[in-house]
Amino acid sequence: MNIKRIYIASDHAGFLVKDESKKLLLDLGFEVVDLGANSAEVSVDYPDFAQILCQKVANEDEAYGVLICGTGIGISIAANRNPDIRCALCHDTFTATMAREHNDANVLAYGARVVGMGVVQEMLKAFFSTEFAGGRHQKRVDKLGCCC
Ligand code: RB5
Question: What is the reported pTM?
């Protein structure tokens, strides 16, 4: 997969895991842009950060995203309101791999209160190295635009 840039964002609950995730992505050689939040102490609203990141990912070629909140649930729900975003809430290597292979996900979400950094590292590696399989999955992904 061609990856020009990875945007990363979280709310306060995901702040520390975002910082660690950013370091892991930089170590893997990716260009990473951190869109906040900037503190674990100041309470913020996850939809605001999902919206900022999704606008970036949707408007740039070969841009991907990582979103983190306490559970990953709220921030992934918010992200999927953008019709150009396929945000996958993942919990392990298998879901992170399938999110790319079957769903052509362009944003990976996870919960800072759900997964440890070991799992995060494996998910990041899996997600950002797995190609979309296309074929029968393409028509299903195409139908995502008209689900509702
Ligand atoms: C914040 O306390 C928490 O509700 C949020 O990070 C997230 O888990 C929501 O889905």
Answer: 0.97
